[in-house]
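Researcher: I've got a protein sequence and the SMILES for zinc ion. Could you write out the 3D structure of the bound complex as structure tokens? I'd like something to compare against our soaking experiments later this week.
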Amino acid sequence: MVNLTELYRIIVTANHILHNQDVVDAFGHISVRHPTKPDVYILSANMAPSLVSRPSDLVEYYVANSSAVDPNAPKGFIERYIHSEMYKKYSNISCVIHSHAETVLSFAVSGVPLRPVYHMAGFMGTTVPVHDSQDYYGPTSKHDMLISSIPLGASLADTFTNTNSTATNSTTPQNTVVLMRRHGFTTWGPDIKTAVYRAVFMKTDAGVQANAINLREALDGVGGTNMGETEFELASLTEEQARDCKKMNEEVQDRPWDMWVRNVERSPLYDNFA
Ligand SMILES: [Zn+2]
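Model: Sure. Here is the predicted complex with zinc ion in place.
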């Protein structure tokens, strides 16, 4: 039996956690597939995630075209096609998160590949695909980088699965995260906790990798500073490490979730009336 009241409360809390953990600012969003109507998903209205606080801030949309179930619903996010096309292509997805987190954004603009560089980011796999809206613009498209149509959303959803794979019709994406060039990233989960875990630790991993690259350059004497020798190369997780760490990540994700919930419940910044 699905308790919708409880689900609304968790969605509001997840919005607050993503803000509290610096995954989203005024922009970025999290959606959930409706638990009893798989052709519908739930996303907040056009508002900052930290301000989402009550069931009336949440809007139901049809997966088919991202139109609101209630024609009188408040204004929605322009980029809600990110969510609808993920739910449409992959039936096993129950939560989608889109973010412009700065640490990740650096990898979406620099061309430096984003990799899992420590054990908490094994879910990323060994490589993170990059989607570029520019590749999908038509003659009448707006070039504002936003995923503002079904075709753009579908192209992003397709990037989650390698085109040369035999599993292109899979109900589950091959990749857990996709970088969006000059824009941000999108991730998903089979449930809210998993998706939030991935969004937070993707952001953390990107910060660690960027710092490691900077330290490595200092160590290599860039800028005239030679700090000595090192015992190992800068390297990301191997395929086996990423696979086993992903499993471990899923087994331990309740611990940070409980901490993040406490953080936002005790913070005067956030209201949850759901
Ligand atoms: Zn965006």
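Model: The CA atoms of residues 63 and 256 lie 30 Å apart. The domain at 4-265 is CATH 3.40.225.10 (L-fuculose-1-phosphate Aldolase).
Researcher: Great, I'll pass this along to the crystallography team.
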